[in-house]
Design a protein that fits this description.
The protein is mainly alpha-helical and about 450 residues long. The protein contains 19 helices and no strands.
């Protein structure tokens, strides 16, 4: 009986149409996640007028939604290691599709908040599952770039929302954007047929037929059979026990806490900007379309940061790239608070997007690779779940700053979480991680 190390087969594989299938579905799912999250900031000015909300009340609604995302990360994200990452992705897409539509149909702020909260459960649970399964099925050689490029779907979704807002918001109203959120629901049947489940899920259940089928797509020359031993005993032993407890075992506790701090800092910046950037620019004298164009540039910056950072990761390593991006971000936000030049504002917001959303796109696969694959989604879910505290307080903090300070001065406050994130990653203990090392010369794993 041939013993097959499934993780090594995937790590040494070459990107083919199977990897592309996984990539495209993950890209699609995370794009709608980004689209849904961007809706709130884009429609916020008009919603504030319709529902008669002041900045603090509007920030509170944003924070309630982010509490839902935190719970979704904890509950749904962690359960993906139990019931399957594919199943969790389907549940999450159904949740945010249905309840985004219902949020757009809401007649008052209270109903909107409840619908948005439930939709946010799906948004929060989706990200860890998507990143974990993309990390699992990506070849090691270009894993950081592949996951980073996939997560650009989040920014593409935000860009699409911004473009629709720029050209249709005045004519069709803010509710129209929420109606579009129902689209993923109609594609779920095809998703369930075409998308593969996690290999760990099948190994724990002894599904040799499913494992062999997937591995033969990953490596068409492997000739894997249902009767092969896919390390059933080893994987099942590792899968035993309480997943969250394992995050603190084998000297991983200190790094686990640091990951939480870093993600908290990054999400504070991301959601502070996503929620309030259009309003900040409007208060600074820019029109609606012009204000939304800054949102577009922010999303382009996130993509730029993901791609450039992903390329650099393969050359100088994850931690050096992340430290550099946090440091550049701190300088960028201080500079934003001190300029009114329109060209410079666009450049700095582009850099700000690269050093917030782009940085988080690289943080996610780094965290995912740090943990063993049997607790990979749990590790990322907990980091993102705890990190959501930053996203929850962000709308309130920025709303408070806008009440007491000039709009542009609020940008300087984002330098603080940038510095905290840099310190956290400086102290990560990489030697206690589970980073895979792929042999340079090895034709087949048996």
């Amino acid at each position: 009986m041939k013993v097959v190390q499934t993780s090594q087969v995937i790590a040494e594989s070459k990107f083919n149409k199977f990897h592309l299938l996984v990539f495209l579905w993950c890209f699609y799912a995370i794009a709608f996640d980004g689209f849904d999250i961007a809706l709130f900031g884009i429609g916020l000015p008009d919603m504030m007028v319709e529902f008669n909300l002041d900045p603090v009340a509007a920030g509170s609604i944003g924070s309630y939604s982010l509490v839902g995302m935190m719970l979704g990360s904890f509950v749904l994200g962690s359960f993906s290691d139990v019931i399957g990452r594919k199943n969790i992705m389907a549940i999450c897409m159904a949740l945010f599709s249905i309840f985004s539509l219902l949020a757009g149909l809401s007649s008052n702020a209270t109903t909107f908040t409840v619908m948005r909260f439930i939709a946010a459960l799906g948004m929060g649970g989706l990200m860890p599952a998507v990143i974990s399964i993309m990390t699992e099925y990506s070849p090691k050689k270009n894993r950081a770039l592949t996951v980073g490029l996939m997560y650009c779907g989040y920014s593409i979704g935000a860009i699409i929302a911004s473009l629709i807002g720029m050209f249709a918001l005045e004519a069709l109203g803010w509710r129209f954007l929420y109606y579009l959120g129902i689209i993923p629901l109609f594609t779920l049947p095809l998703f369930m047929i075409k998308f593969p489940e996690s290999l760990v899920y099948y190994i724990v259940r002894g599904r040799g037929d499913k494992i062999a089928d997937i591995l033969n797509k990953v490596n068409p020359k492997g000739n894997y059979k249902e009767t092969d031993d896919f390390e059933y005993h080893t994987v099942k032993e590792k899968a035993k026990g309480f997943p969250v407890k394992k995050l603190f075992e084998d000297k991983r506790a200190f790094s686990t806490i640091l990951f939480w701090c870093a993600v908290m800092s990054t999400l504070l910046m991301i959601y502070g900007l996503n929620t309030w950037l259009p309003k900040i620019m409007q208060e600074s004298g820019f029109g609606i379309s012009s204000s939304l164009s800054f949102n577009l540039v922010l999303a382009l910056g996130q993509i730029t940061g993901s791609l450039c950072g992903g390329l650099l990761v393969d050359k100088i390593g994850h931690r050096r790239v992340l430290l550099s991006m946090f440091a550049i971000g701190a300088i960028c936000f201080v500079s934003l608070s001190m300029t009114t030049n329109i060209f410079l504002l666009y450049v700095l917001i582009l850099i700000g997007g690269a050093c917030t959303g782009g940085t988080q796109n690289l943080v996610n696969p780094y965290i995912s690779e740090f943990y063993p694959r049997e607790i990979r989604t749990t590790g990322l879910s907990m980091a993102v779940g705890i990190g959501r505290i930053g996203s929850i307080v962000a709308p309130l903090i920025v709303g408070f700053l806008l009440v007491h300070f000039a709009p542009m001065q609020a940008f300087a406050a984002f330098a603080i979480p940038s510095i905290i994130g840099a310190i956290a990653f400086l102290c990560i203990k990489e030697k206690h991680g589970d980073f895979e090392v792929v042999p340079e010369v090895k034709k087949q794993v048996v």
